[in-house]
Amino acid sequence: MTLAEQEKRFQEKIDNEIKIEPNDWMPDAYRQTLIRQISQHAHSEVVGMLPEGNWITRAPNLRRKAVLLAKVQDEAGHGLYLYSAIETLGADREQTIDDLHSGKAKYSSIFNYPALTWADIGAIGWLVDGAAIMNQVALCRTSYGPYARAMVKICKEESFHQRQGYESLMVLCKGTPAQKAMAQDALNRFWWPALMMFGPNDAESTHSEQSMNWKIKRFTNDELRQSFVDATVAQAELLGLTIPDANLRWNEERGHYDFSEINWDEFWQVVKGNGPCNKERIEARVKAKENGLWVREAANAYAKKRAMKKSA
Amino acid sequence: MSNSTWPLWEVFIRSKQGLNHKHVGSLRAPDATLALENARDVYTRRSEGISIWVVESANIHATDIDEVDSFFEPSDTKIYRHPTFYEVPDGVKHM
Fold first, then answer.
1. How far, in Å, CA of A10 to CA of A220, rounded?
2. What is the distance between the alpha carbons of residues A262 and B78, in angstroms, rounded to a whole number?
3. Where are the domains of chain B?
4. Whole-number mean pLDDT of chain A?
C-alpha cells in the first residue's frame, strides 16, 4: 500500500468514528501531535500537584486536609494514566519527563501562578479543575483509543475535584467579611489565568485545524472557553462573588456571555517561562526526581535479591 | 538505573465476583510484587477491584494488525452461526 492509500484509509477510519489503537498505522504527524499533547497533559497533572501540595499541611481542618490529599493523589494517578498512554505511541516515558525538566516540553500555564491563600485552593478546584473538566470531557471522544480511555477515567475522578473547591469557597463566602474578601481576591487572581487555560484564540492556534480533522480535538479553544464562561457565571453569582470583568454580559442574540479580550501578552510571557512560578515548578520536579533516585535504586536491588532467592 | 529499564506491566482488574478481569492500563515496576502494589494505588483508588492481575507486557502475544482481515475471515463468512440467519414463522413462541 502506498503512503497516500494508507493516509486515505486512516482518514476514513477517523471520519467513520473508528478509534485508532496503538498498533494501527497512523501518519507520523498524528503520532507526534499526540505525543506532544498527551505529554503536555501528563506534565500538567504532575506539576499541578505542586501549588496544592503546598497547602496540605496548612489545611484548616482534618476534613479539608483529607480531601486535598486525595485530590493531589488523583493528580499523580492521572499523570500516570497519561504517561502510559504516551508509551503506547512508542515514546520513551523517561525522555518525556526529561523534556519537561529541560524546558523543551510545556505544561498548562495555570500552574505557574502561586496559591497564596487558602481561598486559592478553593478557586483552583472550582475554576482550574472546572476548566480542565470542560476540556477533558470533550477529549473522552478523542480519536486515539488509549487517550480517550484515560480521559474517561480521569473525568470520572475529577468531578469531585471541582465540587470540593466550590464547596470550600461556599463556606468562605458564608463566613466573615474577611473570609469572603479572601474568596473574592482568589477569584480576581484566578479568573483570567483560568480562561487562558483553553489556549490561544482559534485564529492564533497553530495545531487546531489539523487536530480537529483528526478528531484529536472535538471543539476549538474558543468554543470550550465560551462554554466555560457560560457555565461559570451563574456559579459565581450563587457564591455572591463578582467576576472581574466589566464587559461580562449576556448576549441575547448569541445566546452566550460576552467577555473582555484576554491579556495575551501575559499568556505568552507565562508560556515562554516568565510566569511567577515557572522556575520554581521545574526546580521542584527536578529535585523530586533526584531525591527519589535512592528509592528507585532500592526497589531494583530488592527485586534483584528476590529473583536470586527464587532461582536458588 | 532509571525506571525506563523497569519492565512494563499490563494491569487487569476484576471489579466484582462473577465478572472477568478486564484490561485497564499499564505501569512500570521492578517486579511483580511492586507492580501489584502500584496497580492498586494507580487503578483502584475508588474500590474498582477485588482482584488484580499484572502481566509483563513482553509476555503478551497478539494478532498481527496487518493480517486482521485474513485471520478473522473464517468467522466473517459464516453468517449461519447467528440465530437471525434462520426464518421461523411469526407464531412460534419461546425461540
1. 22
2. 60
3. 8-81
4. 95
A297 touches chain B (CB under 8 A): yes
pTM of the entire predicted model:
0.92
Closest-CA distance, A219 to chain B, in angstroms, reads 26
- Name the helix (H) or strand (E) containing B73: helix B68-76
Task: Outline where chain A has alpha helix (H).
Answer: 3-15, 28-47, 49-53, 62-87, 93-102, 118-123, 129-139, 145-173, 177-196, 208-213, 221-239, 264-269, 278-291, 293-311
Q: Contact A84/B25, CB-based, under 8 Å?
A: yes
Among candidates B4, B34, B46 on the partner chain, residue whose Cβ is nearest the Cβ of A299: B34
Kindly state whether B1 is in contact with chain A, defined as any CB-CB distance less than 8 angstroms. Answer: yes
Using the predicted structure, report yes or no on whether residue B1 has a pLDDT greater than 60. no
Query: With a cut of 0.85, is the ipTM above it?
Result: yes
Per-residue pLDDT for A206 more than 80? no
- pLDDT value of position A108: 95
Amino acid identity at A256: H
Q: Would you call A303 and B30 a contact, using CB atoms and an 8 Å cutoff?
A: yes
How many Å apart are CA B9 and CA B63, to the nearest integer? 19
Residue B3 in this model has a pLDDT that exceeds 70:
no
Which among B3, B43, B62 has the least Cβ separation from residue A296? B3
The answer to whether residue B40 neighbours chain A at the CB level (below 8 Å) is: no
Question: Looking at the domain B8-81, which fold is it?
Answer: Ubiquitin-like (UB roll) (3.10.20)
Cell of A151: 480521559
Q: Distance (Å) from the C-alpha of residue B27 to the closest C-alpha of chain A?
A: 6
Residues of B in contact with A150 (CB under 8 A): 25
* Banded pLDDT at A312 (limits 50, 70, 90): confident
Q: What is the pLDDT of residue A36?
A: 95
Give the span between the Cα atoms of A247 and A184, in whole angstroms.
18
